[in-house]
Write a structure and sequence with these properties.
Elements lengths: L13 H5 L8 E2 L10 E4 L5 E4 L5 E4 L2 H9 L6 E4 L1 H5 L11 E2 L8 H8 E2 L2 E2 L3 E6 L15 H4 L5 E6 L7 H12 L2 H22 L5 E8 L7 E3 L5 H8 L2 E3 L10 E2 L1 H7 L3 E6 L6 E2 L4 H14 L8 H4 L3 E5 L8 H12 L7 H12 L7 E2 L1 E2 L3
Parallel strand pairs: 4-5, 4-9, 5-6, 9-10, 11-13, 11-15, 15-17
Antiparallel strand pairs: 1-2, 2-3, 7-8, 11-12, 12-14, 16-18, 17-19
């Protein structure tokens, strides 16, 4: 992702500059003056963390957190990233030369200690932003998974923010704005995001719910497919877009199901998560679209697929993973709504263009985010 250093405030109405609305109970400052330190913030995992001085150095574990830091105009403060961020240079181009300090589920604590050190001490102006799925998430590799490893580093503040689930994005952005002293920039984004979500929900209001099967993948064939259940970000988007996730009543966030079970549920739409190291996919005909078509054809060729409404009506889609989470999930929501309700007055490309303008991002042009293209 390449972010120019012009504030996102410049594209919103002046009133957005003046508002600073904090979610009740989410953020607590220890002084009336927001510039005063220390500040106490309750992170997305329900942990009370103390920011003792202005943050000058940031380590990001999550690409979504990196995206948020960049959006607030603080990318220059990032000193360390995980290898996933480093490898995705097309998406995170401003971070390609930053020090790699671990993977998505492990940190190199010794390296972080050296990176954080200034002469003989670690000055408490450094934070580590980790995944968090909320206080009730209970998800492995969330912020609490790293607390033991960071315990010896008393001056490094570990913070969990949830940019994965759509319902938590603006709250997390507000908290990050407090942490980085970028409250107005955070509020500007939240104003736009809430406006887009409201617009999309209004466009599908009153339309019949569509039954949706959301698939991640399988390592053991169609007898054990990984679906998205209740509590997953993908499922939340489908619900907001006027869909009914057929796996939402299963006990796990990412339940295992059989293809036979999917057939019995007879979904109206099938969506499959598809990741990429680049921003979306190159328009067809291309190597990307050939690969996408192979993946789609595998679903269509499964035994009994022809009996499913989604297959009969040609409503089987592959969706670019990165737009389903993070700051641009409003674009993902627009696509979900359009795939479920083609007749809805929604233009996902228009919302994507708005997002690029809002964030002042120079992304590669002409990319696609769903396959087949609608």
């Amino acid at each position: 992702m390449k972010l120019k250093r012009i504030s996102i405030l410049s594209v919103l109405i002046p009133i957005a500059l003046m508002l600073c609305i904090f979610t009740a109970g989410a953020v607590q400052a220890t002084a009336a003056n927001d510039s005063a330190y220390p500040k106490t913030v309750v992170d997305s995992a329900g942990r009370e963390v103390v920011i003792r001085m202005p943050v000058e150095r940031i380590i990001v574990q999550s690409g979504y957190s990196a995206e948020a830091v960049e959006a607030l105009g603080a990318a220059d403060k990032i000193v360390g990233v995980t290898d996933t961020i480093h490898k995705r240079s097309e998406i995170y181009s401003a971070l390609k030369d930053k020090q790699v300090v671990g993977t998505w589920n492990t940190f190199d604590y010794e390296m972080i200690g050296e990176l954080a050190r200034q002469e003989d001490t670690i000055v408490p102006n450094i934070v580590v932003l980790c995944y968090s799925y909320g206080a009730s998430g209970g998800k492995s590799y969330a912020v609490d998974s790293f607390e033991k490893g960071f315990a010896p580093f008393k001056n490094i503040t570990l913070i969990g923010l949830d940019f994965t689930n759509p319902e938590n994005v603006t709250e997390s952005m507000t908290k990050l704005g407090i942490i980085l002293g970028k409250e107005k920039e955070a509020e500007a984004y939240s104003q736009w995001y809430e406006q887009k979500v409201s617009q999309i929900k209004s466009a599908v209001k009153g339309m019949p719910l569509k039954k949706v099967y959301i698939e991640s993948g399988s390592s053991t064939g169609v007898s054990e497919l990984t679906a998205y259940g209740a509590g997953s970000g993908f499922s939340s988007l489908v619900n907001m877009a006027g869909g009914y996730n057929i796996a939402k009543d299963l006990p796990e966030k990412f339940p295992k199901v059989s293809w036979e079970w999917v057939i019995t549920q007879n979904p109206d739409v099938i969506m499959k998560y598809k990741s990429a190291d680049t921003l979306g996919w190159e328009k067809g005909p291309s190597k990307d679209t050939l690969d996408l078509e192979r993946s789609r054809n595998e679903i269509l060729a499964r035994a009994g697929a022809g009996n499913i409404a989604a297959v009969k009506n040609d409503r089987v889609f592959l969706c670019f993973s990165e737009m389903l989470y993070g700051l641009d999930n409003a674009v993902g929501l627009a696509w979900m709504a359009k795939l479920l309700h083609p007749e809805a007055d929604i233009n996902p490309d228009e919302i994507w263009n708005e997002y690029e303008e809002l964030m002042n991002i120079d992304y590669p042009k002409g990319r696609i985010f769903v396959w087949p293209e609608e």
